[in-house]
Design brief:
This protein has 126 residues and is mostly helical. The chain contains 3 helices and no strands.
Length: 126
Amino acid sequence: MMKTVFKSVCATTLLAISSLALACDYPAAVDIPNGSTATKEEMIGGVNAFKAWQQALVEYRACIESETSEAIAALADSGASAAEQEQSKLALEKQLTQKHDASVDEEQILAADMNAQIKAYKSKQQ
């Protein structure tokens, strides 16, 4: 019984350490200019900042995928049982999916806002 508890604690600790080791920085969202009041330069700057942010998100997603793969590979050397390794692997993959999906959701929200502001800017110009 004590041996099982010890292994579970070790597996949980390993998972927590692996999670902390994921050091990919999430890029800060950009400010979208107000299309109703922005100048042409502000809109161009906003679009360029948004595109740079999107590229930073692509890099962030690649980073979390890479670090998750490394953490999963490290499980083999952890000394945990196959079942504990599988449990930790599933937890890491779940965490990856949550982070990835959250970044995609935020990107879609900001893209919709950016498109709405571009539309507002264009309608102001007519």
